[in-house]
Specification:
The protein contains eight helices and no strands. It is mainly α. It is found in: Cell membrane.
């Protein structure tokens, strides 16, 4: 995957960075931890500008995560409930879970989105409860942009500073991302195995 990411940025520049970051938010296994450090390296080499790289990365990330927010917002809480009931064990989510999540998000929504944008794998998932809780669009975009700017700036800066050694970022950031993804999978498997319906759906 690293070679494909590097080739895309090398040949497509800012457009490539934008599209890769959109995909990273739609399909989390494509890691920003590989995209933005190399983009920063390209900026250090004079192939791209730092601010152009930042702009493309932030725009792509916000666009990608906003897609999940829009889907959840359009779906709405009631249709989401029915969908989870229909999917049953596969969804591993009960109506009680949904009520608790929405209540919690109503209380800590801004901070949840901000922190979520800084955590691997959670960056995409946090958009769904934001949409279900009908978080105002302007607030979601504002907080998402702040969190995205911090994360994108950190990764781009490391690539810019480390120059040819930008790949060392992957050596310590990627294992953390992998650990978070593994944790999410383990939690899902546990909930799948222990899931019980709270009522029969006719």
């Amino acid at each position: 995957m690293s070679e494909w990411i590097i080739e895309t940025i090398t040949h497509s520049g800012y457009v490539g960075i934008f599209l890769l970051m959109v995909l990273e938010n739609l399909f989390p296994p494509i890691p920003s931890e590989l995209i933005m450090p190399f983009a920063g390296y390209a900026a250090a080499q004079g192939q791209l500008s730092f601010w152009g790289v930042m702009g493309a990365g932030i725009a792509g990330s916000v666009a990608g995560t906003s897609a999940w927010y829009a889907v959840a917002r359009l779906l709405g809480i009631e249709r989401f409930r029915r969908l989870c009931n229909w999917l049953g064990r596969v969804a591993t989510i009960s109506e009680a879970d949904i009520d608790m999540a929405v209540h919690w998000f109503d209380r800590y929504g801004v901070w949840a989105v901000l922190a979520g944008r800084l955590i691997p794998a959670i960056r995409t998932l946090i958009s769904v409860p934001a949409g279900l809780a009908a978080m105002p669009v302007w607030k979601f975009l504002a907080v998402t942009t702040v969190g995205t700017t911090l994360w994108t700036g950190f990764l781009t800066g490391t690539g810019l500073i480390l120059h040819e050694n930008y790949h060392h970022v992957e050596e310590w950031v990627d294992p953390v991302s992998t650990a978070v993804v593994v944790l999410v999978v383990v939690v899902y498997i546990y909930r799948f195995v222990t899931w019980k319906p709270i009522r029969d759906i006719g």
